[in-house]
Amino acid sequence: MSDNQNLLAEQRRALILDEVRRRGGVRVNELTRRLNVSDMTVRRDLDALARQGMVEKVHGGAVPVSEPSSHEPGFEAKSGLELSAKEDIAKAAAQMAAPGGAIALAGGTTAFALAQQLLDVPDLTVVTNSVRVADVFYNAQRAAAGGPAPRPGAATVVLTGGVRTPSDTLVGPVADAAIRSLHFDVLFLGVHGISVEAGLSTPNLAEAETNRHFVRSARRVVVVADHTKWGTVGLSSFASLEDVDVLVTDRGLPDQAREEIAELPPELVVAGEPGDGTDL
Q1: I need a surface site. Which of 3, 65, 91, 187 has the fewest CB within 10 A?
Q2: Any residues with CB less than 8 A from the CB of 132 and at least 6 apart, and which?
Q3: Residues near 8 by Cβ (< 8 Å), separated by ≥ 6?
Q4: DSSP letters along 164-219, please?
Q5: Is the pLDDT confidence value at 214 over 70?
Q6: ∠ Cα 96 102 108 (to 5°)
């Protein structure tokens, strides 16, 4: 992590958090050398991460926070984390959306990154329960309408309605009823946590139920999740790994996790590695 003095604060903090999680803790003096920034900068970054509940400060450094399974970080708290991984994942997953298809995009920051990659796929019908994802498409359409002519092939977007969660997704009976009545070619699903034992999980009970309906309504389920989600278990499981057709993740996924996934039904696509589809 050298020569990173020009990184934005959000990117630098994402690197620090990844190092904390990977190593189980870091010291301030190690981070100053690795990031090539001042002691004061590192301490400010650790203070910011601690305020967000992402790390616990200890004497001389920081360690991971052992979060309760019901803890649900907000969209802003997650949006600056694993930025490059999410972009790689989004590019790889976007190759799985066919022009003219009907797709579903569940909530989350990785789905938000994916939405931006799908803007150039023509004639999509996009069903989402994410306010942030819907805004990506709406804003693109408004920008196009301000030009000489509306952009041809712009996506048709359906926002489910429902009760808003801290991650800006819409859940509950209204969302569930809308999703039950629809059928999708592909569901792109971000998750709070993945494990062999618990499958896909979330800390929000209502969101778990909404995600169950998404999975049942899709012909193909594509999970988009960076490596930090592996081994995390939320309060409520809503699908098993047998329900997943493809898992798109990043190169930070540990070898042990790759071995475990190899014995399970999902196809594993590691974004940024040969064969991820982005070279097509």
Answers
A1: 3
A2: 75, 107, 112, 168
A3: none
A4: EPTTSBEESHHHHHHHHT--BSEEEE--SEEETTTEEEES-HHHHHHHHHHHHTBS
A5: yes
A6: 70
State the Cα–Cα distance between residues 151 and 173, nearest whole angstrom: 34
φ, ψ (nearest 5 deg) of residue 231:
90, -10
Chain-centre distance of CA 207, in angstroms? 15
Distance between CA atoms of 50 and 194, rounded to whole angstroms?
24
Per the structure block, which two tokens stand in for 248? 């798109």
CA dihedral 250, 238, 138, 88 (to 10 degrees): 0
Over residues 106-119, mean pLDDT: 94
The secondary structure of residue 241, as a DSSP letter, is G
Which of helix, strand or coil describes residue 64? strand
Sign (positive or negative) of CA dihedral 122, 123, 128, 131: positive
72 touches 167 (CB < 8 A): yes
For residue 84, give Cα distances in angstroms to 1, 3, 66, 223, 249: 14, 17, 25, 17, 12
Order across the sheet with 236-239: list the strands: 193-195, 199-202, 236-239
* pTM recorded for the entire structure: 0.72
Q: How many Å is the Cα radius of gyration of the chain?
A: 19
Sheet holding 55-58, edge to edge: 26-27, 61-64, 55-58
Could you tell me if residue 116 is left (phi over 0), alpha (psi between -120 and 50 degrees) or otherwise beta? alpha
Contact assessment for residue 225 and residue 110, using Cβ atoms and an 8 Å cutoff: yes
Q: How far apart are CA 144 and CA 141, in angstroms?
A: 5
Residues 138, 156: Cα–Cα separation, whole Å: 9
Per the DSSP assignment, residues forming a β-bridge with 186 are 103
Q: What is the pLDDT of residues 232-270, one digit of tens each?
A: 888 899 999 999 999 999 998 888 889 999 999 999 999
